[in-house]
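Customer escalation, tier 2.

The customer says the design service returned an amino acid string that "doesn't look like it belongs to this structure." They asked us to rerun it and document both sides in this ticket. The original structure tokens are below, unchanged.
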């Protein structure tokens, strides 16, 4: 992508808009070329550029993620001969698509784009202002771009091209056992919408947590089948400034991820192994479920991962929650890091392509390749086979991923069962649809969440 042209900024507002456009261009290209996660690149940029205030960070952050969310369509915008001018059109469109409140910045970008009068007229109905970017006092009936159909109509007017929904996901993903005729529209529409923040109350009643959050001016409501889940709205939250979080009474965990803990359903005095714990969100949830049933629970959880820093973060979170009964044990090599045949339950939340998080991390769509799916299945099957050795007779083995591909999900479970006949699948009840499943997928459009897969097995002998 060409570098944005050296546009002459005539006002302080235009200077801000120009600065944003150059920053966004640099960040976007870095993410695409290095295939580095956007949240990591953005965090490093803000750490190195402390000049940005909260408003600046919001404009940059939300515009950057919007670009990735709509990139499958936006990249087709070629209404100017120079790609640098098209960049300003692309920035403007994603701002309108997501109803960003900085209309003056969007108008400046449109000024920089040097659009023809015909194309200028196409934008006027979508700008929620009486002052148009042509500097004329014009009043138009505002049109909402909320629906995909409205967005497609505007793009078609600009380019005369078609903009099918499937363009919003990479070509390679279409043959990965993700999309069906029944879910295609719902899933892609979910992928192109901003997800809410979900949390869990722990060591405190949900009602009390809601009261404290609302006093802190945070949108919070109980909006799920789980009694400890809290819907925290869409606004970014300064967790380190929130007493509820600092005291270990609130954990951020997506609703689809919370499903896994409830499928595990650990009893108060059981021993569980979280074999791929990461930073421990599910380990903490398992312990919380035990304590909700019995505050004197003697249950224990061992959390393992190959990443020592992740386990260090888990220990910090467990300490903040004042949880005893959680210990860490790193995977050192291929040998089982825990005692075989000794656990009531083993959770294998396996490393995966993370397709289920494409809604929350839209950049992953465009920096991932098919190998992220096809090359994980052998590793997932190997981890599942090794971890299963820790389950005692009568115990439970739970396999989960945040992928939506059958290659990483159903196919792995089926391959495992073929070589481990001592295990059988349990029937699961979908927490949101109440349907019965042998293997369960939580789709983003079902729960206003990320996507997750889970299967639960019993060791019979």
């Amino acid at each position: 992508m060409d570098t944005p042209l050296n546009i002459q900024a005539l006002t302080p507002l235009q200077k801000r808009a120009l600065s944003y456009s150059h920053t966004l261009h640099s960040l976007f290209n870095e993410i695409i070329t290095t295939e580095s996660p956007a949240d990591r690149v953005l965090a490093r940029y803000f750490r190195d550029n402390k000049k940005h205030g909260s408003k600046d960070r919001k404009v940059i952050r939300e515009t950057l993620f919007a670009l990735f969310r709509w990139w499958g369509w936006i990249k087709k915008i070629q209404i100017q001969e120079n790609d640098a001018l098209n960049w300003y059109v692309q920035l403007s469109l994603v701002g309108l698509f997501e109803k960003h409140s900085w209309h003056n910045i969007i108008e400046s970008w449109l000024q920089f784009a040097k659009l023809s009068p015909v194309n200028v007229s196409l934008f006027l109905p979508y700008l929620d202002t009486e002052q148009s970017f042509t500097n004329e006092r014009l009043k138009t009936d505002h049109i909402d771009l909320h629906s995909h159909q409205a967005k497609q109509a505007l793009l078609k007017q600009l380019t005369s091209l078609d903009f099918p929904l499937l363009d919003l996901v990479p070509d390679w993903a279409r043959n990965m056992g993700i999309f069906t005729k029944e879910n295609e529209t719902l899933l892609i529409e979910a992928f192109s919408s901003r997800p809410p923040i979900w949390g869990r109350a722990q060591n405190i009643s949900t009602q009390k947590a809601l009261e404290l959050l609302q006093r802190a001016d945070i949108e919070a409501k109980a909006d799920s089948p789980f009694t400890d889940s809290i819907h925290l709205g869409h606004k970014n939250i300064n967790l380190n400034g929130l007493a509820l979080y600092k005291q270990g009474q609130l954990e951020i965990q997506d609703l689809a991820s919370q499903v896994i803990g409830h499928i595990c359903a650990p009893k108060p005095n059981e021993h569980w192994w979280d074999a791929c714990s990461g930073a421990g969100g599910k380990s903490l949830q398992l312990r919380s479920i035990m304590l909700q049933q019995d505050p004197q629970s003697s249950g224990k959880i061992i959390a393992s991962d190959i990443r020592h820093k992740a386990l260090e973060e888990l220990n910090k979170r467990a300490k903040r929650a004042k949880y005893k009964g959680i210990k860490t044990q790193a995977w050192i090599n291929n040998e089982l890091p825990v005692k075989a045949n000794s656990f009531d339950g083993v959770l294998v939340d396996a490393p995966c392509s993370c397709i289920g998080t494409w809604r929350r991390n839209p950049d992953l769509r465009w920096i991932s390749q098919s190998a992220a799916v096809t090359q994980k299945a052998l590793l997932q099957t190997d981890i599942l086979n090794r971890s299963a050795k820790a389950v005692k007779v009568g115990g439970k083995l739970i396999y989960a991923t945040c992928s939506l591909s059958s290659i990483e999900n159903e196919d792995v479970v089926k391959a495992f069962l073929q070589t481990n006949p001592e295990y059988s699948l349990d029937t699961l009840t979908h927490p949101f649809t109440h349907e019965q499943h042998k293997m369960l997928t939580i789709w983003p459009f079902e729960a206003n969440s990320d996507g997750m897969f889970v299967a639960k097995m019993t060791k019979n002998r």
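Tier 2 assessment: The sequence is consistent with the input. The chain has 19 helices and 13 strands. The first strand starts at residue 198 and ends at 201. Sent an explanation to the customer and offered a walkthrough call.
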